[in-house]
Amino acid sequence: MYFYDACGDTKQFDIETYNLGFTDLVYQEDFKLLSSETLVQPKPASVRCIYKVIKKLDNSDFKSELVNFIKNNPFKKYFINSNLLSKKEILTQLYDVKKSVKFHFDADVNTFLLSKRGFFKQKVAVLALMRFDRKFYFCELIDADNVSQLEMFDYKKPYRKQRQGMMPPKLALFMLNLLGKDVKSVYDPFCGTGTTLMLALKNGLSFKGSDISEDNIPGSLENLEYISNKFDVDYDSNSVFQKDALKISSEDLKGISSICSEGFLGKPKAGNEELIDLVRESDNLADFYLDFLENLSGKIESGFPIVMTFPVYKTEKRLVFMDTLYNNLKDIGFKQVKLHPKHMSYLYSRDDQRVLRQVVKIVKV
To answer: Which domain holds residue 288?
Structure first.
């Protein structure tokens, strides 16, 4: 039995696991935890961490299980957390154990510290007492976000632009997972600073990337070299090139089986824009993306998948979706497909954002 601490919502978890091939995944939800008998690997981007249940308990007393685990699994340090007991309650229960075993209490798993503590090098164990559906479980953390790694694809990458390359790495990874586990190659025609390409390189996908801005090409290559050195993986420097996305050729698509990208989301918003202006901007962008897709249409085969984000503009009263794009896909040989039997798309956003991202999957008819 496994517990998933979902950093997104269950809709995002449903979509991602479905596209990773877990189409019949059964789970229960209780207090921000998801429980399933199935281990989903690789860890979905929508999941912060995964616990494996060691033993179901009759009550909240887990001291004997902790002592037994420590006896059979020697680690340098042990970290304890719980979604039920406070630090004081845990320390009281483990008072006599504390004298002989070095362990530390966390109110919750601190993914920012896991790498520094040595979790990903198997130097420490992270254990937990979990309450789920009014039952108690002694668990071990088996996988989690490696924040130190994620930072390499974000603000630690050598080439960054404040107005470009702001795509969150976890969103890019989520989108790559939506292509399906059988996809082996990906093209990003709006590569910017190369976040999607960097993740493709790290995860063993062959890739190509292009951008209309000449400045972004050496910058993306610098970022790819950074990841290449960090993870000891090779790449072809000719796979990134300057190109207008409206002029992509058959040669550019050679050896490519999918597209994953975030294009231009529109001008920065101050929050005081008129609704008519936002609708006009959305329609203009829709025309651009329709031209982009129409150029691709005769160069790719039926079933070719494209996962992209498109902007949704937020006003006080409504959201402005790019309906012009979706309503005209059929005319240029494409169709939008559901990300999940229950979900057509996924809206990625934060509370303070004025421009939201709609994650969409399109295929060639």
So the answer is: 264-365
